[in-house]
Design brief:
The protein has 19 helices and twelve strands. By secondary structure, the chain is of the alpha/beta class. The chain has two domains: about 350 residues, TIM Barrel, CATH 3.20.20.220; about 140 residues, no CATH class.
């Protein structure tokens, strides 16, 4: 069994044959009193001293609330010798702040980073904080990967310099617990994009359906992607289960069926404690049986509870997990799965794609978002904005001529026409670095609460944004692209990273003259996976 002073790195642990356990610590708001040991620190130190806890993972302002930074606690626990993972989210820092935080973590020796978009802020000093989302999880992963490669920067003298290489072991999240096909498949496609951009390990968001956890493995195998997957377990209680059931914690799902069982168990003499402990231990056993690299425990506030759950998980028989996998399946009614169910195991059948999904690809239904506006936009883009084709070379010359020969009035007039038409048709915010072709011609700044340009966050529920004020832009984009046979490729390619320096300038001019993200030179990336959801060499039969 691993000891706290093991010389194995976190990456070596996940690559090894031994199933290991990790624990989550959630930091607090407010400064600990100098003469009173923090309960959080005491818990962290107790976990670091437990030989079965291979690593401790520390959150970054979870739930959209301001908390003590993760590296404050990490520095206290570092002398204990346990491996530490720091969460880094995009909601509170712009790209400079994120890069600065990453340099600080690297300088402090914290190389294990879980890169997340983050929850939308829900509180703050004298009001709700204004979210940032300058980058998202995909572009953050791309930045961390670039730092690992030796980030190239331009100095004031114009010379390019490569900065020292970092050694980040970059993790990412995925949310398989989605009701609808239009929500779930963009999640999987985005996972492939994250790995293409540099993610090296995966942890799912929270749910209580082992078939959905298993689907992550099946999707990765189908795409020939080999990264370790960590199983995520949150130890429930009635209060938290109710919050998950009511979608009050984005991306965390407890179905009505499971919540009914929670209420039943919580009415018992121990308020359901034995049930919740056993459920968590059984989940860990299933992850181990499925061949996950590790199990990750959250929602626990006492070190002895972590120990109790791990002890119980280790006490089960070698094959007990198979029955647990059938038992712990609490989907919502009508929930979509990418793979057919295996009748024997109750899990997914990696050899058979969802039959109705395959048929729908052949004859896709027209969704409400496949509007005349969308059809016309596709036509105009094909005629005028496809590099090297049709009208693009002519318009490129015209814009080049106007800029080179100093015609500001004409350029302003064209920009006015551009913005007025795009504002009317798409709600354009005049960012100057247009992502309409990336997002099914739905403006991410107008239609996404997090301005996501690289795929959906994990917070949507039943096709709705986590703020519940609109449909998820990426579910809508999926509907549009599927109708035209493009959904399988909707998130291919490098990370989309908009340039704010172009705000309030002409996106048309920037596109024709090669200034926007469509033309920026892309740094080296890991070998890309096969196109998301394309047929592999040996496609699963229907």
């Amino acid at each position: 069994m691993l000891t706290p002073n093991s010389q194995l790195s976190f990456s070596e642990m996940l690559a090894g044959e031994r199933f290991v356990y990790g624990a989550e610590l959630v930091t607090t708001r407010g400064m600990p009193e100098p003469d009173h040991p923090s309960k959080l620190v005491e818990l962290g130190e107790a976990l670091a001293a437990d030989s079965r806890i291979a690593w401790v993972s520390i959150t970054d302002n979870p739930g959209g609330n301001p908390m003590i930074p993760a590296d404050w606690l990490a520095n206290i626990l570092k002398p204990r010798g346990t491996q530490l993972v720091i969460h880094l989210t995009c909601k509170d820092l712009n790209r400079n702040g994120l890069e600065s935080a990453a340099w600080r973590y690297a300088a402090e020796g914290f190389d294990n980073i879980l890169a997340l978009t983050g929850d939308y802020p829900v509180s703050g000093f004298r009001g709700q904080a204004l979210p940032v989302f300058d980058l998202d999880s995909v572009s953050l992963i791309a930045m961390l990967h670039a730092m690992n490669e030796g980030l190239e920067v331009t100095r004031p003298n114009g010379k390019t310099e490569s900065l020292p290489k970092t050694r980040f072991f970059i993790g990412c999240a995925v949310s398989p617990f989605k009701l609808q096909e239009r929500e779930l498949l963009p999640q999987y496609f985005k996972l492939a994009r994250k790995i293409q951009c540099g993610a090296q390990w995966v942890i799912p968001q929270l749910g209580y359906d082992m078939r959905k956890f298993h689907e992550i493995q099946l999707f990765l195998e189908w795409q020939n992607l080999s990264v370790p997957v960590i199983g995520n377990v949150y130890v429930l209680n009635k209060t938290v289960a109710r919050m998950f059931n009511q979608n009050k914690i984005p991306g965390c799902v407890v179905s009505d069926a499971l919540y009914a069982e929670v209420e039943k168990q919580a009415a018992g003499p121990d308020k359901g404690k034995a049930f919740f402990t056993e459920l968590a231990a059984k989940q860990l056993a299933v992850f181990k049986g499925l061949g996950f690299a590790a199990g990750y425990l959250g929602g626990v506030h006492k070190a002895e509870t972590f120990s109790q759950i791990i002890d119980l998980a280790e006490s089960f028989g070698a094959d007990d997990w198979m029955e647990f996998a059938k038992e712990i399946q609490f989907p919502k009614p009508g929930e979509f799965y990418l793979f057919e169910q295996d009748a024997q195991t109750g899990l997914g059948n990696g050899a058979r794609l969802n039959n109705s999904y395959v048929q729908s690809l052949e004859t896709p239904a027209k969704a409400a978002d496949v509007t005349l506006n969308y059809r016309l936009t596709r036509l105009v883009h094909d005629l005028a904005f496809t590099p090297g084709k049709k009208l693009f070379p002519t318009l490129q010359k015209i814009y080049g001529h106007l800029e080179q020969n100093d015609h500001p009035k004409m350029l302003r007039a064209l920009h006015g026409v551009e913005h007025a038409s795009k504002a009317l048709m798409y709600g354009c915010k005049d960012c100057g670095d247009c992502s309409l072709p990336d997002t099914g011609y739905l403006c991410p700044r107008a239609s996404c609460s997090k301005c996501g340009r690289n795929g959906p966050c994990g917070g949507s529920f039943d096709g709705r944004c986590e703020l519940n004020n609109k449909d998820c832009i990426w579910a809508r984009a999926y509907d549009r692209m599927k109708y035209f046979g493009e959904s399988k490729h909707m998130l291919e390619g490098p990370a989309v990273i908009a340039n704010p320096a172009l705000i309030s300038t002409s996106a048309w001019a920037n596109n024709f003259l090669g200034r926007d993200h469509h033309h920026v030179a892309i740094p080296s990336m890991p070998t890309p996976p096969p196109a998301a959801a394309d047929a592999p060499v040996n496609p699963p039969p229907v």
